[in-house]
Amino acid sequence: MTAIIATTVFGIIMMFTGLFVDNKKTVSSIAAVLFVALLGINIMELSDATGPALRSMTLSLLGTADNTNGAFPQLLFNNMLRIDKMSMWFGTAMTACTALYILLIGKEFRKVGTHVAEYFALIFFILCGLYILTAYNSMLMLFIGIEIMSIPQYVLAGSDKRNLKSSEASLKYFLMGAFSTGILLMGITLLYGATRTFNVTEMVPMLHSESLNPLAISGIVFIMVALGFKVSAAPMHTWTPDVYDGTPTAFTAFMATIVKAGVFFAFLRLFHVSFGNISEHWLMILAIVTALTLLIGNVTAVYQQSVKRMLAYSSIAQAGFMLFSVLAVSSNIAWNGIILYGVAYSVATIGVFAVLVKMKDYTYDGFNGLAKKNPLLAFVTTIFLFSLAGIPLTGGFMAKYYVLLAVMHQGNMMWLVIFALLMAAISVYYYFRVIIAMYFKQGDPELTSEVTMGDQVLLIATTIIVILLGVMPHWFLMPA
Amino acid sequence: MDIYSILFWFLSAMAVGSALGVILSRNPVNSVMFLILTFFAISGHYIIMNAQFLAVVNIIVYAGAIMVLFLFVIMLMNLNADVEPQKGMMIQLAGVISGGTLFLVILMGLTTAKSELIDTKSSDIGLISNLGKVLFTKFALPFEISSVLFLSAMIGAVVIGKKEHIPASEKAEIV
Fold first, then answer.
1. CB–CB of B138 and A78 under 8 A?
2. Chain A interface, mutation test: which of B133, B139, B149, B174, most A Cβ atoms within 10 Å?
3. Model ipTM?
4. Does CATH number 1.10.340.30 belong to domain B1-80?
5. In this protein, which residues make up the domain named NADH:quinone oxidoreductase/Mrp antiporter transmembrane (chain A) (predicted)?
6. Which pTM value belongs to this model?
7. What is the DSSP secondary-structure string of A309-356?
């Protein structure tokens, strides 16, 4: 709860910073400090979560009765939010990824346009939406969380006003997003009609297999379509390549990683907690969606000529793997799987994008000979791409292992696991094309800006995180 | 047949008929007019469900503000039937099939659903005092937190709408 308040306040502080501070460099530094502070607040909240003194104090401040009997989960505001340790852990992990993103890519915001402070403010507001999505306990909060996350993204997509592609991306994203929001609302309405409640946990007894209201099934399918749109799952993925390609690269890195992971957490929570008992009604639809996502994402990525567009398709393919955690309804590993996958995928993709914003030419040929020109950049990119492809000893391998293991524990979807492994093999092809261009081709790649000492330290730190995720994954999972 | 069901069927026929008019009329201005008619019909439904506040808001916000804006945009863009892009046969067929499937699914859902719906006549849940009460007690958090949504929309208007300061060196290129 503190995190939601803090990120909103920080967003407003950034708005005023834009009013009073003209120097863009100062604005970026203030933003970086605020993001680190936000991470601190998250960690504090997490560590105090079990400390009784602070919790009862916050509860009395909020005017809510301590009806949880001193134990988590914490239900706030008439059961609108349900803050448990898992949601706090995920929120903290995503805040850490955002802080890393701001430190690595934040200074590129200056090149996008003049409203630097406003861009940071929008990112704070997106984080507010993310915290709501990690802790929602009511369909209304799910809807508001998704909207708070989406609207700033439409703006960020169109922030490079002199670029026609950016405006196109913004308009396309906005129209398609509004459409999917309509579908989400329709789904929530149907579900409300069937269960008479917005509450995620209270609707569980209304949803059981013997006397299932057909309205509920239609509602679930509508919600699945809308959430699938937000995470770019296959039949609803068509907006992704154009939007990610047209958006200024600095913002694509955020949209494709942290936002996507956040929506996945909400997806998982809703489908496991509320619809878990009637999984036989929707599991097969979601399995087909997963298979399609993997197929389309991976196969189309092979044909791309631009690395940025390839990363857009790769984000679709990775979404296919993340869907596995939603499929594993009866498995406890699914929650750990989505946290590990979210972090591993976000860190590696942010790393690749941090290198990409430095390149002048986004095609594969633009990477030719990077290993000779700047060995460090080439090396860290290689590690990030290894992680995305799922090579052992990197985070991506452990993440894929966890989500696939979760489905295998369930035992009824071996065909999908085998299919996913096949698709992972295809993904190696397009990720390695970048590595081949960097190491085995001649060329003189142009960089847009100098790789400073700070950049080098941060990139190396990111690489170490990626490797730690692969070697010591339990460090990143919530202690039992 | 009492007055409620007569009103209900009249308003429903009006809503469905003018909704069809929205998508079938060639001229965009006519479409907007039909849409306004649809909103009025839906507001009528709200009133027979005893939700006066919702009915008034629906008229003011949708039929009033948004549709006027809509009409302005259409007039400024000077759209008419001639410039309407022609869609291929295949796309039309695909649209009909997917839309028809969706229609069938929802139809199935609605017809087989248990119709233990709310009693429209005695319920006064849609009255403004009740609405205000739940908005500030039970649903206080969603109500308050949507301010973040509006803040980001406002920032969006500034970021997208405000003129960028272009350095003198680049100005020369554009002119």
1. yes
2. B149
3. 0.84
4. no
5. 137-425
6. 0.90
7. HHHHHHHHHHHHHHHHHHH-TT-SHHHHHHHHHHHHHHHHHHHHHHHH
